[in-house]
């Protein structure tokens, strides 16, 4: 026996492993599941943070977050409009797969189907406390609210902050100039299913960022023994915008800059709460946006950072958004990732990290954990489909090649923007012809190269046909084989 033990320990020494390590590893406790904080902005453009090139104000807390994590430069929202984008984020699916399109209005009879699996529901099954503080916009009927979709606690608005009976100047609508908005109620600030306050004025709206932040910080403190999931979808910088007194007039870019300073402060408060509660090393923080800037609002809109078009459009300015992921000890510090990624990739990535089971129904996201760990040679996502409106396939992508398919859509180009909260024109029926762009050399999509690369056009047209077969396409009158209905009430 003594001779056998000597041989065993000698063999371990040869391969650089001790017998102690072998036995102790088997008995070591599993690592604690990380907390997840997902901060989701509304209409924040690609160029709206100073670490992405913003001018006339700085976002030092977000710049620090980027310096301590991975900053993505090729990260796409699933669709360039509110409800659709949020459905995609929470389910890991293209929104048309789960039957959500556009932006749902108050009292809509549709919402995210409770049969779909959200990030919150995946994490609840792993013992996570789940809290949401901010804009929901996936159905305001009780059947569709966050507490029915996996969240233990919810405080926020059920839809966009412009869906109220208030005019662009902040005054109540008293004439027939906007019959649709005149029928809207004041904004209900909900706690779970109950209204705790009516948001009636811009001064009321100026308090929203602070309210969401305070509730999120309290949730973190309450559940510091973890694990927890915080979803913090801010109502701004979606118009109408307003900053609290502490930030009003503090930037050199007017109200929009003030709002961004307050958002940056909010991120700092979240990070401070993590550090003060000993959670800094075991929390993954994700910061991104639902779509690009609403450009026709002029000085109350953000910047696409030189990308073409903006919100409500399938060019890059509509869907390419900032994304920063910071997970101390896992994500490398100060790394820039240029790989194609999307909000739909967050669900499968989080599921892998937390050991959660993926939904039984088909999803479209891919696991991007290798990129988060710093393997920039990994290519988890190769293709992407750009859908808009109910189910229009407007473009497809393979790596850095993007084929824009013939369609009519919104354009901001050649239009005079509005000012001080009032919108300018943004025609919805502008014709866009077939075009091929090499986004590696031409991220602003200005040089159509389809005549130079007909083989790429042919390849991407086949990709488009695959998308149509799977998800359908209203433009070519194709029904998808694998789409599911939204939730619906009578």
From TrEMBL:
Residues 1-19 form the signal peptide. Its cofactor is Ca(2+). Keywords: Calcium, Glycoprotein, Hydrolase, Metal-binding, Signal. SUPFAM superfamilies: Alkaline phosphatase-like. The keyword Glycoprotein applies. Residues 34-355 form the Sulfatase N-terminal domain. Coiled coil: none annotated. The keyword Metal-binding applies. Residues 467-490 are annotated as: Disordered. Residues 467-482 have a biased composition (Basic and acidic residues). GO terms for molecular function: arylsulfatase activity; metal ion binding. Its EC number is 3.1.6.1. It holds the Pfam family Sulfatase. Belongs to the sulfatase family. PANTHER family: ARYLSULFATASE FAMILY MEMBER (PTHR42693), ENDO-4-O-SULFATASE (PTHR42693:SF53). This is Arylsulfatase. It comes from Runella defluvii.
């Amino acid at each position: 026996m003594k001779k056998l033990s000597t041989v065993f320990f000698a063999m371990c020494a040869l391969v650089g492993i001790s017998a102690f390590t072998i036995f102790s590893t088997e008995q070591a406790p599993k690592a604690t599941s990380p907390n997840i904080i997902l901060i989701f902005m509304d209409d924040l453009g690609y160029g709206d943070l100073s670490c992405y090139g913003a001018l006339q104000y700085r976002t030092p807390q977000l710049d620090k977050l980027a310096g301590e994590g991975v900053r993505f430069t090729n990260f796409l929202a699933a669709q360039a409009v509110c409800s659709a984008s949020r459905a995609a984020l929470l389910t890991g699916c293209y929104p048309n797969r789960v039957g959500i399109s556009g932006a749902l209005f108050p009292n809509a009879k549709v919402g995210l189907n409770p049969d779909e699996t959200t990030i919150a529901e995946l994490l609840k099954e792993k013992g996570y406390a789940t809290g949401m503080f901010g804009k929901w916009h996936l159905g305001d009927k009780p059947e569709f609210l966050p507490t029915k979709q996996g969240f233990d606690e919810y405080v926020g608005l059920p839809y966009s902050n412009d869906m109220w009976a208030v005019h662009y100047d902040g005054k109540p609508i008293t004439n027939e100039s906007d019959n649709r908005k005149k029928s809207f109620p004041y904004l209900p600030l909900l706690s779970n299913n109950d209204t705790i306050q009516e948001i009636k004025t811009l001064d009321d709206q100026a308090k929203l960022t602070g309210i969401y932040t305070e509730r999120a910080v309290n949730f973190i403190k309450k559940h510091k023994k973890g694990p927890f999931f915080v979803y913090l979808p801010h109502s701004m910088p979606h118009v109408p915008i307003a900053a609290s007194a502490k930030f009003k007039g503090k930037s050199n870019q007017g109200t929009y800059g003030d709002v961004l300073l307050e958002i940056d402060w909010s991120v700092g408060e979240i990070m401070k709460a993590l550090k003060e509660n000993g959670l800094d090393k075991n929390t993954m923080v994700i910061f991104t946006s639902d779509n690009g800037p609403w450009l026709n609002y002029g000085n109350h809109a953000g910047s696409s950072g030189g990308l073409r078009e903006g919100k409500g459009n399938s060019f890059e300015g509509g869907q390419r958004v900032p994304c920063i992921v910071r997970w101390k000890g896992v994500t490398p510090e100060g790394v820039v990732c240029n790989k194609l990624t999307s909000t739909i990739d967050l669900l499968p990535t989080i599921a892998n990290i937390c050991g959660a089971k993926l939904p039984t129904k088909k999803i479209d996201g891919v696991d991007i954990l290798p990129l988060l760990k710093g393997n920039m040679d990994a290519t988890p996502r190769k293709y992407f489909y750009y859908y808009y409106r109910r189910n229009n396939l407007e473009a497809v992508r393979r790596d850095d090649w993007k084929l824009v398919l013939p369609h009519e859509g919104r354009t901001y180009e050649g239009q005079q923007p509005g000012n001080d909260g009032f919108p300018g024109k943004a025609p919805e029926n502008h014709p866009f012809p077939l075009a091929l762009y090499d986004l590696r050399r031409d991220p602003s999509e200005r040089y159509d190269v389809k005549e130079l690369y007909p083989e790429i056009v042919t390849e991407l047209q086949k990709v488009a046909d695959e998308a149509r077969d799977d998800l359908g396409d209203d433009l070519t009158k194709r029904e998808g084989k694998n789409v599911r209905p939204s939730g619906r009430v009578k």
